[in-house]
Amino acid sequence: MNRNLALLSEDTSSAILDSAHHGDIVGALGTVRQHDDGTRHSWARRILTFLAIMGPGLIVMVGDNDAGGVATYAQAGQNYGTTLIWTLLLLIPVLIVAQEMVARLGTVTRVGHARLIRERFGRFWAAFSVGDLFILNFLTIVTEFIGVDLGLSYFGVSAYVSVPLAAVGLMVMVMTGSFRRWERFMFVFIATSLLMFPLALLSHPHLGPIVRGTFIPSVQGGFNSVAILFIIAIVGTTVAPWQLFFQQSNVIDKRITTRWLHYELADTVIGAVLTNLGAAALIIAPAFAFAHSHLAGHFANALTVANGLATRLGPAAGAMFSIILVNAAIIGASAVTLSTSYAIGDIFGLRHSLHRSFWEAKGFYAVFAALVAVAAGIVLLPGAPLGLITTGVQVLAGVLLPSAIVFLLLLCNDPVILGPWVNPRWLNIVATVIVAILVELSLILTITTVFPTISIAAIIAVTVLVGILWLIGVAGYTHWTHWRADRRTPPVPENTSDSTESKQTSVSYAQGSVLPISNLKEALPGEVENQRPANSDKFSWQMPPLHSLPPMVWTSRQKLGMYALRGYLIIAVVLLAVKIGMVALGH
Question: What are the counts of helices (DSSP H) followed by strands (DSSP E) for the chain?
Fold first, then answer.
């Protein structure tokens, strides 16, 4: 880190909050200089540049296959065979769409996800978003230490030894004061995670069931409320809210700017494909190993899976699964805990960078250490239902995900912070469909918890009909309000270029391009597309300092929608707890 820079950024023309986020890109596999213009005339140089930039996308995706993910995918294979692999195929574009948006937010704004929510939507919604994140992340970290306990128990290591050692190791790995050193640690764990593929091969899989499970949506035993619960768990463990916060902050911490965004997007796409292939391998291994045996359909926890694989395929398979589980727990614990520390640093203005030593960023590292220590302590409590806790946390992540993506969509359609980088219309349509499907799944879970005998097909039919009527109503209302506005708007004078009002109600894009604030506030998602500067201006545009941004103006429809979403999530989380309790009691 450049010691000549002030501890905190003094540049009032930039939104960067910490000077450690400014400088050369120092990656595990190379360095890109700060003033590099990005010109690359050969594939060799492009590949070397990609290797230096690669990291945030790959880590966030592979970290998604954490201990809870390993257990969830193993349970899918043991209880449902290969019939749920299709969910992973559908989730690849969901991962890419969501993480592309946060990567773009990070490179353009240079400000973390939590700080943007606070500055644009206010303290109440920041508390709503970050509060949910904190609770969910803490529970997720607990599941990572459950993974450490179960994985090393296979080798006869006591939890009172394995869990404290893992906690200390995590702290040592993160608190080195070197971003490059931390990233190299993570790459070692990512390489170890590739054991998923030889493990799948050891189960002697057959291509036919895998192809059917990948391309034909079905569930072994039928689509019932328990199956829906489990599908949501797969969604929650594959696309989790912490990923949004982590990648945006990690991109900033690595000092990746818009000049290198296409390399970071390639990093993200490769990570998304790799992580879902790994998840499929984890489903395939127990699906074929336990088929036609007394173990099929009787998942208890990850340790029983390891023991079962050892019995059916040999000790090497059990050992490989246990190593995969512990390895995944370390990757997940590091990434999930860091996402929380980054978010807390954003909200409270703490120095938050892996480039800083412990003494330069005591608050940032103290949050990390406290979360790790408390989560590890909880796992050591006797009698905890470890398998059920792990599944429940993944389902909770799936239930809370729509809220996180709604905030992400609002930010990515805000031209005040993204300027020419706002979402195109097609991306908004795709993201809206994703949110609708996630809400539909949680609605099914909620309704079947209250009315267990109701038909899932009937729920889907009714909710789709209500959704169509709602869309028609919104379209009609929007058309009517525009018609009224057109009737009330006075004729515009021919020459308005010098009007004082126009000068006072505008903000500047790069190189003199101007967009009226009234248009910024009233524009619907995608409508600013025709008002953007040319592509040549995009890379010279940057978000102004946070204190200079005009306040976000909520419409009554937006407020109503957000309050309705918040109220529904509270109800859904309460009913989720009821459903988990019913499953625990065998109902």
Answer: 24, 4
Beta bridge partners of 506: 516
How would you label 518-548 residue by residue, b for 16+ Cβ within 10 Å and e otherwise?
eebeebebbebeebbbeeebbbebbbbbbee
Domain coverage including residue 105: 26-34+43-223+242-383
Per-residue pLDDT of 305-316, as tens digits, reads: 999 999 999 999
Interatomic CA distance for residues 21 and 2, integer angstroms: 11
Rounded-to-integer distance, Cα 348 and Cα 469, Å = 43
**Cβ(329)–Cβ(144) under 8 Å?**
yes
Residue 272 in domain: yes
Q: What's the CA gap between 127 and 231, in Å, rounded?
A: 29
530 located within any domain: no
Residue 285 burial (C-beta neighbours within 10 Å; 0-12, 13-18, 19+) = buried
What's 115's domain CATH number? 1.20.1740.10
Residue 336 CA to residue 144 CA, distance in Å, equals 9
Number of domains in the chain: 1
Token reading at 283:
């489903």
299 touches 78 (CB < 8 A): yes
Largest pairwise CA distance in the chain: 83
* Residue in the structure block whose two tokens are 């072994």: 220
For residues 275, 276, 280 and 281, what is the CA-based torsion angle, rounded to 10 degrees? -20
Whether residue 395 lies inside any domain: the answer is: no
Asked, for residue 572, whether it belongs to a domain, the answer is: no
Which tokens in the block code for residue 193?
A: 């995670």
pTM across the whole model: 0.82
Give me Rg for the CA atoms of the chain.
25
> CA nearest 435: which of 412, 402, 460?
402
Reference 332, options 140, 192, 163, 184; nearest CA is: 140
**In which residue ranges of the chain is pLDDT below 70?**
1-14, 225, 383-388, 390-391, 394, 398, 442, 445-446, 448-452, 467, 470-471, 473-475, 477-479, 481-482, 484-537, 583-587
